[in-house]
Amino acid sequence: MPKQKVNEEYILKNSLRLFRKKSYHNTSVADIADACGLLKGSLYHYFPSKEALMSAVIQFAHQSFKREVFDIAYDTTLTPQLRMEKMFKKSEKILLSDGNIMGNIGVETARVIPEFSEHIKLFYIDWIAAVAYVFKEIASDEDANNLAEQTVAEFEGAVMMTRIFKNSKYIRNAYNRLLNRFAAFSLSGAKNKKNN
Length: 196
Hints:
The protein has 196 residues and is mostly helical. It has nine helices and no strands. Helix 1 (8-22) crosses helix 4 and helix 6 (101-109) packs across helix 7 (114-135).
């Protein structure tokens, strides 16, 4: 008998933890069942395959990140600068403490399991859209979209470098560059408004 009430969310949380720790290919269905206090066969009652479970985990992680990070972009009670700061501080905390499931699984499985790539693409589309939404308050739509793509790509690379070198300077530097870019565009936008 499982010690905890097992439901789909409980399985997703435990699976996410294992996939972050061991990767998709190195995590077996038996590992997941064991982590959830289930027999291997019982796991199939919830998910018909490891691939179906991973797809659900990616979507679960996406929705969690959306609630905790992306939604900050649309909170217009905060200044654009504060929204950007909060989004990336929260991103940093999640990605460094929990691991970057989207980046890791994306790289590990992109060529082998295209379905995962589609789910992961949606995550990055949402992240870029959230960042662009804030940048659009201080820059043209084209600049905002370019800055958002650059920011998300740079931040993802900085997370990877921080983990590889075990040195938080990479993420700190990326965060500071983001704030400097944001301040520069805010200042130039304010000048343009003043001149018009």
